[in-house]
């Protein structure tokens, strides 16, 4: 099965506070986008990567891609105001032969090829939607607008969800056709009533959000 990656990289990176969008920041000598692309292409079935970049940075993204050994298998498209819009833009650029779609945050640029491989295998085995998740270590409380605790869900039933998230293409296309918005793509699939399965996540798939996360990535890469 041909698998395609929609690498969403169109956010501003407000919480990181760098002088450029987060995906263009360098860690250990390479941009966040380049780290993500190289790991995705190390996975077995990935035949296309769509980089969804800020409209202001299409030329910069194109320049990163042009020197890549697999440049012919990489496209760059402009993202939207919300993450959901950026994913939809990426979906529109997938080749006709792509059957499995992995939606991946560029900000999780150290997610390893083995994680992509496990997710693609699960879809090949018949799942419609699979997402990586790790057990939650903090106690999570639901609060109201005044900060008062409403509920304390049983921690053993909670998972912190990562990307890449893998979908049978037709399912993801239908989910995005609904016009709903969410912070991840699995939520849109859940709205369809389609089962989403959680696989064991990977610590390396953490998201670079703050300067401390960027420093953490640098240490992992030995920089
Ligand atoms: N993203 C996107 N399009 C948007 C918003 C986010 O492609 N309109 C992407 C980001 O580039 C990132 C991923 O979605 O790779 C996860 O979003 P987040 O970590 O929130 O990144 P930013 O929105 O860039 O950061 P911030 O919220 O701090 O501004
Ligand atoms: Mg954001």
Word description of this protein:
This protein is an alpha/beta fold and 223 residues long. It has a single domain (3-222), classed as Spore Coat Polysaccharide Biosynthesis Protein SpsA, Chain A. 30% of the residues lie in helices and 23% in strands. The strands form 3 sheets. Strands 1, 4, 5, 6, 7, 10, 11 and 12 form an 8-stranded mixed sheet that branches. A hairpin with a 5-residue loop joins β8 and β9. α5 (169-177) crosses α6 (185-191). The longest helix is centred in the middle third of the chain and has 12 residues, at 113-124. It is globular, with a radius of gyration of 17 Å. The chain starts with a strand and ends with a helix. It binds cytidine-5'-triphosphate (CTP) and magnesium ion (MG). Cytidine-5'-triphosphate (CTP) is lined by residues 8-15, 22-23, 52, 79-83, 86, 105-107, 207, 209. Cytidine-5'-triphosphate is lined by residues 8-15, 22-23, 52, 79-83, 86, 105-107, 207, 209.
Brief descriptors of the model:
7 helices, globular, alpha/beta, 223 residues, binds magnesium ion, 23% strand, binds cytidine-5'-triphosphate, Spore Coat Polysaccharide Biosynthesis Protein SpsA, Chain A
List strands and helices in order, with pairings.
Elements: E1 3-8, E2 26-27, E3 30-31, H1 32-41, E4 46-53, H2 58-66, E5 74-78, H3 83-91, E6 100-105, H4 113-124, E7 129-135, E8 142-143, E9 149-151, E10 159-161, E11 165-168, H5 169-177, H6 185-191, E12 197-200, H7 211-220
Parallel strand pairs: 1-4, 1-6, 4-5, 7-12
Antiparallel strand pairs: 2-3, 6-11, 7-10, 7-11, 8-9
Bound molecules: cytidine-5'-triphosphate and magnesium ion (MG).
């Amino acid at each position: 099965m041909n698998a395609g990656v929609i690498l969403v990289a169109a956010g501003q990176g407000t919480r990181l506070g760098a002088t450029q969008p987060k995906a263009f920041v360098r860690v250990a000598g390479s941009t966040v986008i380049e780290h993500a692309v190289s790991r995705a292409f190390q996975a077995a079935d990935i035949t296309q990567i769509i980089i969804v970049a800020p409209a202001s940075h299409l030329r910069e993204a194109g320049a990163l891609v042009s020197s890549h050994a697999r440049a012919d298998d990489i496209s760059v498209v402009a993202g939207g105001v919300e993450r959901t819009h950026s994913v939809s833009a990426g979906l529109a650029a997938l080749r006709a032969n792509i059957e499995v779609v992995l939606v991946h945050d560029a900000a999780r640029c150290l997610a390893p090829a083995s994680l992509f491989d496990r997710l693609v295998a699960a879809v090949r085995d018949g799942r419609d939607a699979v997402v990586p998740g790790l057990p939650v270590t903090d106690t999570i409380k639901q609060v109201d607008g005044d900060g008062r605790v409403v509920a304390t869900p049983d921690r053993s039933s909670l998972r912190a969800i990562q990307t890449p998230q893998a979908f049978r293409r037709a399912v993801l296309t239908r989910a995005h056709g609904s016009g709903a918005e969410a912070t991840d793509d699995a939520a849109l699939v859940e709205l369809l009533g389609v089962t989403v399965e959680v696989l064991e996540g990977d610590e390396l798939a953490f998201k670079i959000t703050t300067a401390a996360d960027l420093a953490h990535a640098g240490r992992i890469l030995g920089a």
